[in-house]
Amino acid sequence: MKKCNRVYFFMLLLCLAWLWMPMNSFAEEIKEKKESDIPSHVLDVSKENTFPNSTEDQEIIEASDLTKELIEGVDIPIENPELIKILNESNIKPSPIAIGYRGMVYLGRWPINYQSSESNVNWEYQLINKNEMNNIGGDQAQEMSYYQQEQKEVKGALTSKISNPEQVKTMMLLKASEKTKLPLSYQTVIGHNTKLANSYNIPVQKHGILDAYAPAVNEKGQVTFGEVYIELKGSNKTIQIKNVTKQGIGAWIPVQDYLSFSFKVK
User: Which residue, 19, 72, 217, 230, is most buried by CB atoms nearer than 10 A?
Assistant: First the structure.
């Protein structure tokens, strides 16, 4: 009888463990989803924005077949789009009959890749508009809506000095966009006369204030730098990266065509 009880108890534990594992996995999935959700007070204004923002900053340069073959043989991942572009355009072709030939072509010192450590969104990065309505002497509730009173430009930037800043900014932008799934750009504009139909109620004897903020991502990570060479051996060529260094860097990158709203009554 005791043996049966032990078997029953063991089977019960197995069943509980089996049930707990998928529930735990589901909980982690829900947590991850909630962390990446856009808050309800943050709205996409891309259709209403009177200024047509450009997304050219996010252009991705694809490596050619030859470039892919070259960078796959390097221990350090090469992710800098400008460097990939240079390698795509390289026309160095060792002669197939150059037996015993050796040479090194120096391409310069480059930021090789960027590794992200943090991507945090500040939904109230910069105040860009304030609408107010006074209902102190009113005898019934009033409604107000968002209306952009003047054109506002919001710019992002690196938080410290670094070599080849434009190339570093591009790599950080691509990595932050991939992680957050948000439309990011180092410059975004909200045009004059941009407005939304959403309304906010102002009770009698109250003063309403509607603030609009441009959100931005605070991106932090590390850039790898190195001297890039193309090594020629006979009819073969490979990439060599020497004198590798790393540097921490941060940036503020605005979220394009999104606004965060804060409504208060006093």
Answer: 217
Rounded distance between C-alpha atoms, residue 185 and residue 58, angstroms:
8
Highest-pLDDT range among 9-18, 222-231, 234-243 = 222-231
Domain that holds residue 194: 40-265
Q: How far is CA 237 from CA 63, 108, 234, in A?
A: 16, 17, 8
One domain for residues 54 and 18: no
> Over the chain, what HEC string results?
CHHHHHHHHHHHHHHHHHHHHHHHHHHHHHHHHHHHCCCCCEEECCCCCCCCCCCHHHCCCCCCHHHHHHHHCCCCCCCCHHHHHHHHHCCCCCCCCCCCCEEEEEEEEEEEEEEEEEEEEEEEEEEEEEEEEEECCCCCCEEEEEECCCCEEEECEECCCCCCHHHHHHHHHHHHHHHHCCCECCEEEECCCCEEEEEEEECCCEEEEEEEEEEEEEEEEEEEEEEEEEEEECCEEEEEEEEEEEEEEEEEEEECCEEEEEEEEC
pLDDT in tens, 132-154: 999 998 889 999 999 999 999 99
Which residues make Cβ contacts (< 8 Å) with residue 183, sequence separation at least 6?
Answer: 46, 55, 177, 255, 256, 257, 258
Cβ-Cβ contacts under 8 Å for 107 (sequence gap 6 or more): 83, 86, 228, 229, 230
Examine the domain organization and report whether 31 and 95 are in the same domain: no
Q: Is the pTM of this model over 0.85?
A: no
pLDDT at 19: 46
**67 and 161 co-located in one domain:** yes
